[in-house]
Write a structure and sequence with these properties.
Number of strands: 8
Radius of gyration: 17 Å
Shape: globular
Strand content: 25-35%
Largest sheet: 5 strands, antiparallel
Amino acid sequence: MRFFYGWIFSIVYLLTGLYLAGLSMEFESSRLRFGKLTYDDAPFLIALLNSEGWLNNIGDRQVRTEEEARRYLSERIFPHYSTQIGPLIIRLHETGTPIGTIGVHVREALPCPDIGYALLPEYWKQGYALEACRAIIAFATPLLELKELCGMVLPENLPSVNLLKKLGLRFEKEFYYPNDPELLHLYRGKIPLDQ
């Protein structure tokens, strides 16, 4: 019987992956547009992965050249498009300027999918992160049949802590993500979130 349920889960996971892989994942909010990253986004990715916010709150990915950025895209970004929503590029609606990335990620070590985002520093404190999070939650909820959403954050990253609270997620516990020495805080909320 256990084999049967494992087999069913594998088929559902495969079908979900085929479904998600076929989606354009393009949508928009009032000021922002969202879509899959491409190799053309390599210069932007270099800037984002080496920005102050990324380095301080996520970590150094050792991506400095376009070749390294393309490898990062092919190994760390593109494979996710068949199993989760994102990471997607966030662009300003009017100009198409890339300002960050966002995604709803399914991680084995977490009790529910988690929302993750990063913006270039020049786009902080303008409401873009909150707008992007609300837009991706609305987009991802029916596709992933979200019942709950998590967010993990360094406790000292107060802007992200406050954003998770604005989204309706509540502190659940301190924890260590596997193979990561940093103490993190886990926030969690039931869908629909109290926004």
